[in-house]
Amino acid sequence: MKKYFKYWHYILIFIIGVVMVFPLFLMFTNSFLGVQEIKEAYGAVLGEDIGNVAIRLVPQYMTLRSYVELLLDSPDFFVMFWNSCRQVFPILAGQILIGMPAAWAFARFRFRGRRILFFLYMLLMIMPFQVTMVSNYIVLSKLSLMDTHLALIVPGIFSTFPVFIMEKFFKAIPEAVLDAAKVDGAGALQIFMKIGLPLGIPGIMSSSILCFLEYWNAIEAPMTFLKTKSKLPLSLYLPDITTEQLSVSFTTSVVMMIPAILIFALGRDYLQQGIEASGLKE
User: Fold this and answer.
1) Which of 62, 94, 148, 227 has its CA 20 to 30 A from that of 177?
2) How far apart are CA 235 and CA 177, in angstroms?
3) Looking at residue 281, what is its pLDDT?
4) Closest by alpha carbon to 117, among 101, 102, 132, 131?
C-alpha cells in the first residue's frame, strides 16, 4: 500500500491526462463513423431517435466518407482556411515588429512613467474581449475597416501579451554583456539588433506560438467584426449539426487542429521557456 501511495502523483497525472485526452480521442475516432452509426450513437441527442446515447470509441465500420466530403466537396472549407492564414500570419508578423521594440524599451530603458505604462499594458492584457469589444467596434467603424480582414489584423497587431512575454527574456540578458558592447562602441540600435534579438529568440518564438494558438481558434472577434461569409476564418466553419453532417463536424475539428498541433510540437521547447520566464510555472 505504501508503495502505491509513494507514486500517487504519477497516478493522479495519468488520470488527469486520460480525462484531457479522451475528448480528443473520441473526436478523432468519431470522424470515421458512417451515417448509420452516427444515428445509432447520437440520434437521441439530435432529436431524431428515441433512446440512450451510445458513445462509440471505435467505429464498427470505418469510413473516410466525411474526409472525402470535407476535403474534396467543400470549397467553403478551403476559403475559410486561407482566410485564417491571411488573418493570423500578418498578426504574428505585426506583433513581432511592434512588440519587440516595445518589450526592449520596457526591459532595458528607464524613463519617467515606465511603471505606469507597463501596468496599463498588463491591464489591457488581462481584460477579456467583451470589455474592449464596443470601443474596438467604434474605432474600426470610424476607420471603415469593419467587415475586412484588417478588422482582425489591426487590433491583433497591437496586442500587449507578446510584449509581456518578450520583456521577460530581454530583461534576463546580463547587464555585463550590454556594457561590454557599449565599451566596444556599439550604439543602442546595434545592441538591440546584434545582442537583444539573438538572445531574445526564445521569447519571440514562445509569444508567437501562444498568439498563433489564440488567433487560429478565435471565435468572438470574427463573429463581431466580420459579416460576409466569404471572409470568415476556419474557426467559424462548422456545418449544420445533423446526423448526416455530424461526422463532417468531427472531421473539421480534427483537420483544424492539425496546424495547431504541429506548431505546438515544433515549438514546445520555446513555449516551455516562455512559461518559465513569465513566472507562471513557479
Assistant:
1) 94
2) 44
3) 38
4) 102
Q: How far apart are CA 181 and CA 196, in angstroms?
A: 11
**225-280: pLDDT as tens digits:** 998 988 999 888 876 566 667 778 888 888 888 888 888 888 777 777 666 655 44
**Terminal CA-CA length for the chain:** 31
Sequence-distant (≥ 6) Cβ neighbours of residue 72 within 8 angstroms: none
In this structure, the number of other CB atoms found within 10 A of the CB of residue 93 comes to: 13
Cell numbers for 261:
498541433
Q: How far apart are CA 177 and CA 240, in angstroms?
A: 59
Output the CA torsion 229→234→236→237 (10° steps).
80
Sign for the CA dihedral angle at 25, 27, 28, 33 comes to positive
Q: Yes or no: say if 265 and 213 are a contact pair by the CB < 8 Å rule.
A: no
Helices (H) and strands (E) in the chain, counts: 16, 0
